[in-house]
Amino acid sequence: MSIFFVEGELASTKINQGRIFHEVLANISGVNDLDSAVNDLVFKGVIATAEGERMKIKLKELVTDPEVSNWFDGTFRVMNERSILTGTKLKRPDRIMQNDNEVIVVDYKSGEKELDKYHYQVGNYVKVLKRCGYKNVTGYIWYTQTNKRVKIEG
Q: Distance between CA atoms of 17 and 144, rounded to whole angstroms?
């Protein structure tokens, strides 16, 4: 079982909510998987039922946003938390999506701060996938607390 909580903090804090959002997003391929992923956390006692219902609403808002809804509607083959071998190192983006025309790599961030290291990290994912032979690769940093996505070209 993953560790979700910062010691001494409630599940409803932004830090813990961000971790839980990340865990749910990392365990779904599409919008239809959302309810069962959240229900699983309720069943495990990670979050209360009422909090789970609130999270379902917020997460559905995120994944049905028109700018990303095709990421969660079955348009893409989804690989969550998969390692990419780069010679001597492993890279592990949160979500890689692929169809016949493109590859999209997404890294979820639960904080609101936009750090240069995130741009570097996702840019690296894009470069590595291009070196693997994929032509049309785009990366995104997705700040789930604010629902802001930053596009990263490799």
A: 10
